[in-house]
């Protein structure tokens, strides 16, 4: 019989300010109850992925799993401005979310890393004693690649307005000179930029000790998981990592301007979580 969940809202203390916490609580929390903590994506992708996370939270909580989403400093409904956010603070806020989950009674924690959030998840994984597993949705395995794609959004917008053409290197130079740059309304500062740029899965290839559920969304059956992702999976497996990689057919929900859902991804993830043990 499926359990009933309830939604609890709170503000918790992070390193730089108060953080908005949204908890999908299961019917009961025991020593065996697992809480899945979300590590969100970056900038507008975070907003585009929110409803997918909500769908997952609603479904997985029915199987007596908890789900906790905490907006890092400068994002969502937490204190601070986006321009003041940085990568290391985001990692610390994610750890604060996990500590908060402990105060709710959870003794087992997993992390759902969405896009760039997967990089934060692997970065902090070694600091979580009660970590059960990592779950990745379309993970970004190299922060530099994500930044280049992000900066190209600004370049394309400038070209459409007929403004003087910029290059990715021009924008990186501004950052390196201590300036902020604005992309689609997001004011990105040097600390955040440099932190993302330095983040890569390769840095943690020898430190992965928990199972991973890696989910790749492909647009059709004749498409394949990116070659770089498959190489990373094999590299981890060669070092003994247990990685369950699954492909799900659906639209790229993290890119769509309108609300786009991939219910098959939610269902596959719930199956992975509930049938792993």
Features of the shown structure:
single chain; 277 residues; alpha/beta; Rossmann fold; 2 domains; 8-stranded mixed beta sheet; 8 helices; 10 strands
Describe the structure in your own words.
It is a single chain. The chain is an alpha/beta fold and 277 residues long. It has 2 domains: 6-141 and 204-275, Alpha/Beta hydrolase fold, catalytic domain (Rossmann fold), CATH 3.40.50; 143-198, no CATH class. The chain is built from 8 helices and 10 strands. The protein has helices at residues 44-60, 87-103, 117-124, 143-160, 168-176, 190-198, 227-238, 263-275, and strands at residues 6-13, 18-25, 34-39, 66-70, 108-114, 131-137, 181-183, 186-188, 212-218, 243-249. The chain has an 8-stranded mixed sheet with strand order 1-2-4-3-5-6-9-10, with helices on both faces. A two-stranded antiparallel sheet has the order 7-8. β1 (6-13) and β2 form a beta hairpin. α2 packs across α3 (117-124) and α4 (143-160) crosses α6. The longest helix is centred in the middle third of the chain and has 18 residues, at 143-160. The chain is globular. It starts with 5 loop residues before the first strand and ends with a helix.
